[in-house]
Design goal:
Number of helices: 6
CATH class of the largest domain: Alpha Beta
Number of strands: 9
Structural class: alpha/beta
CATH superfamily of the largest domain: Formyl transferase, N-terminal domain
Distance between the termini: 17 Å
Low-confidence stretches: none
CATH architecture of the largest domain: 3-Layer(aba) Sandwich
Mean pLDDT: 96
Helix content: 25-40%
Largest sheet: 7 strands, mixed
CATH topology of the largest domain: Rossmann fold
């Protein structure tokens, strides 16, 4: 099977990146990470890329006079590396409409809750799990979705539930949800590799 060419964008530790690398190396995922890009020069995600001989690039808006110049450079990197799917893995910057339109239905994100619940502005990292516990939810989970021009809004590709335990803290819940993220993200990428993802009327259909 042909390997789908990925660009992974990350701002922090890159544990989802690592799980994707591990699944590729184990032969469970038909993909090749062509480049890892971070807006944070100290992001451990870049170090993970280097350890696996993957091209790593620090690319920040601060390096450019305008947002348009940043977008131009980002798209240039994607084109140079023949990127087929852009994977956001803890990327803390919002992509511009220009980039999203250029890679329409080819940018995906993972969110640590069951969207549309517990999504939107401010809902990232530990804040999501705090909100889940505060709401008294008995179930949370993970969502992989297409990225559109609205935050945490794009069509859902895959979801998986994670139970909320009575004794959970935001930290214990986060750890359990993260394990599911590591499984589901690679599974979702594999659907793209197998060309099973079809988008119609802003909805995702998975071909058999």
């Amino acid at each position: 099977m042909k390997k789908i060419k990925l660009a992974v964008l990350a701002s922090g530790g890159g544990t989802n990146l690592q799980s994707i690398i591990d699944n590729i190396e184990a032969g469970r995922l038909s993909a090749e990470i062509k480049v890892v890009i971070s807006n944070n020069s100290k992001a451990y995600a870049l170090e993970r890329a280097r350890k696996h001989n993957i091209k790593d690039i620090h690319l920040s808006h601060k390096m450019f006079e305008t947002k348009e110049e940043f977008d131009e450079k980002l798209l240039e990197i994607f084109k140079e590396n023949q990127i087929e799917l852009v994977v956001l893995a803890g990327y803390m910057k919002i992509l511009s409409p220009t980039v999203i339109r250029a890679y329409k239905n080819r940018i995906i994100n993972i969110h640590p809750a069951l969207l549309p619940h517990f999504g939107g502005k401010g809902m990232y990292g530990i804040h999501v799990h705090e909100a889940v516990l505060k709401a008294g939810a008995k179930v949370t989970g993970v969502t992989v979705h297409l990225v559109d021009e609205v935050y945490d809004h794009g069509a859902i590709i895959a979801q998986r539930c994670v139970p909320v335990e009575d004794q959970d803290t935001p930290e214990t819940l986060a750890a359990r949800v993260l394990k599911t993220e590591h499984q589901l993200y690679s599974e979702a990428i594999q659907l793209f590799a197998e060309e099973k993802v079809e988008v119609k009327d802003n909805r995702v259909y998975i071909k058999k």
